[in-house]
Amino acid sequence: MLDEPAKIDLAEWDRRYSEMHLRGLNEPDYGGPIGRHIAEGDHRLSSLKFDNSPAALRLWNLLLTEEQRLFEAKKRGKKLVGAMKDLGTVPVMACSFETIVPFYPDGAWWSPCITELSDELFKAADSIGIDESFCPVRAVLGAFLTGDCFPIPDRLICSVGATCDDFSAIAQRVQALGHSILWWEIPHRRNPEPDEKSVRLPGGFNAPACHVEFVKSELSRVAVSLEELADEKLDNEKLSRGIKKANVVRRCIDELRNIVFTARICPLPAMEMLVAEMLAIHFCSDLRETTMVLRGLLEEVRTRAKSKQGILSPDAARVFWVNPVADLKVMNLLEDCGGRLCGTEFLFTHALDIIPEDIEPMDALAQMALSDPMVGSSADRAKRICSDIRRFGAEALVISRIPGASHCAVEGKIISNIVRRRLDIPVVEIEVPPVSDSLQATLRTRIEAIVETVKKRRIK
Hints:
single chain, alpha/beta, Rossmann fold, 17 helices
């Protein structure tokens, strides 16, 4: 009974941890019961339900110890690079150096959820005029003001151009606080003209070859900055090794998604899948441990899928989810309402695609950067979503709007219309604040309605 797949609350997890420990649980040095993180301010954990596997335990401990890991790295003389906004490109370059540890200050946007607003990051951002009319990523500004979430990086690198307006404004305020930023530009991805040389990007989009060359030149500037920081050259051989290591992570996540989203009985909860996918962006500041964590999750879901075990009913409605939720509790809510996660588009599909290894490495990274769903049109994004819905056999689409996010104003309607027209499946848009308790009844009603619609359509 101890090892039967299940979703359990924090108190039960801590009891289970004690039993597993007595049975000889093998843990990394950052291991321990999940409940210990409550004392560190991660109060939201007490409201969540978790997968009960040792692999999930290691996943959560990796995620929740990143701050300590960054401070320790700085103490050991490692150079910290704060990569901002590009979501999956600069960290691959940075990880090619042994002396550099990359991370995303952007990740602070989840801190108000995890701490249930007790970190006061929003309050700090409010104090200098970045209020709730902005996306919750404004927590990043609060983190730089308070110095509580991460050590100040030795180098800040941020993409601009075809990026989120909210984040660009917030990053400019970070620079105004005295933090120097190396800006690199990415153009809006457009379809090539008939007489224009084009490149087929890894994610399936097309782009003008001149765009790839331009982004390559911008990334070359980033490479020079990293070389200066590390005091060593980034040659093609070294960058190719970095790409291959990143691809190990991406292949693990790809297989994990294939198994979890297509298994008859869901073998891993939505919340753990969201966290696992997020590891692709910057490897939670530890590429080696991220690889080990993902391999552990893969072993667990392979075993569960083979034995036809899982954590949800076989008739759960198969839901494709667009945009990451600001409150992780909503992933629990999806399953409580009778749904299961069967496909995702969390704004960083380009960090999940395999980086080409058969072309010049800087060309490969330029192509990956241009594959970002956010640098092209909403119609392009919708086409990829449709393709993935077919791939995973999802029966409905939920679009989670991010409060205040500039890109959420109209894209939901565009994506909804295209998906309905092409696939004829039900679609619902919901808005999820960082702490959604006051909206739980409304969110439950919206999600239950789409789950009910899916099940009625099966009967016809």
